[in-house]
């Protein structure tokens, strides 16, 4: 079994797209080769993207029959092509697949949003060689007839089982393996098996990506996400038991990350800030008697402490011609004020 190794990566590696080019595979064929374990990938940690070691690429390229042999191992066929390989009518192959004799490896949605199942061509021909009675007998097996009579379709269930097996094969990390099994359970069943909310959050973070089925749309994503969830009660029970087993292994390896609740220390100098308290506004009272203008010394005493008043420069204005009459008028206005100041006494 080939897996994605999480360890210190040494030597030259290639990105997945570059590795697909060197192996002369289309991207879909390469992804399937990785899922089936035909191509090993490596990565330094869980957050890093998988890569392919250059020595792994050289190993595959030096194999006999490259690249045709590798392409044949990942070649997929639909119902029409599979029936041609087996030389049987298409409806008979469909009934055999619905009865559970052929396990899909991929699927996609057509323009009518109907699920189209794909099968490994290598598995189709191999099963025909091992069980020729399925193709030659006029009557299907009794168990298959009972399932078809009850309206059962085993293709989604078999595909989910194969997908879970491929997810387990792609990683050695126990928490990632548990997340692969958990992806087949809905939120209610998952909460019953995994009661710790932090463990559920960790499994959700490690959850494998939703299967790509072509053009991405909310409707297509909803169909595929629903297709990935176990439906039958016995199937749900199987995934619950398998998840509990993988969860125990993961807990013994390491605990799920949890938030640290310690609060950072706050500097006392930051919190002890001076607070300016303002007194209540003065209550309006009776008008005070008019007083004389304050002296210059009184003005200096009323200045706030700690603040120096800068001297204000007075600009000297030179008299202009034609303003003599104005100056004489101002002189007459000053005389009464000067006499008033001389007769006013301080209170």
Could you give a short description of this structure?
The chain is mainly alpha-helical and 347 residues long. It is 49% helix and 6% strand.
Verbal overview:
This protein is mainly alpha-helical and 347 residues long. The protein has three domains: 69 residues, no CATH class; 79 residues, Multidrug-efflux Transporter Regulator, Chain: A, Domain 2; 99 residues, no CATH class. The chain contains 18 helices and seven strands. The protein has a three-stranded antiparallel beta sheet. A two-stranded parallel sheet has the order 1-3. Helix 5 crosses helix 6. The longest helix has 21 residues. The radius of gyration is 43 Å and the shape is globular. The C terminus is likely disordered. It comes from Streptomyces sp. NBC_00060. This is DUF6397 family protein. It holds the Pfam family DUF6397. InterPro entries: DUF6397 (IPR045652).
N-C termini distance = 109 Å
Number of domains: 3
Principal-axes geometry comes out as globular
Tally the helices: what do you get? 18
Widest beta sheet: strand line-up: 5-7-6
Give the mean pLDDT: 81
Structural class: mainly alpha
Helices and strands in order:
Elements (H helix, E strand, L loop, with lengths): L4 E2 L6 E2 L1 H7 L4 H10 L5 E2 L8 E2 H8 L6 H6 L2 E2 L1 H8 L3 H9 L7 E4 L5 E6 H10 L2 H4 L5 H8 L5 H15 L4 H9 L4 H7 L3 H9 L12 H10 L5 H21 L14 H4 L24 H6 L22 H20 L4
Parallel strand pairs: 1-3
Antiparallel strand pairs: 2-4, 5-7, 6-7
Summary keywords:
18 helices; DUF6397; 3-stranded antiparallel sheet; disordered C terminus; about 350 residues; DUF6397 family protein; about 50% helix; 7 strands
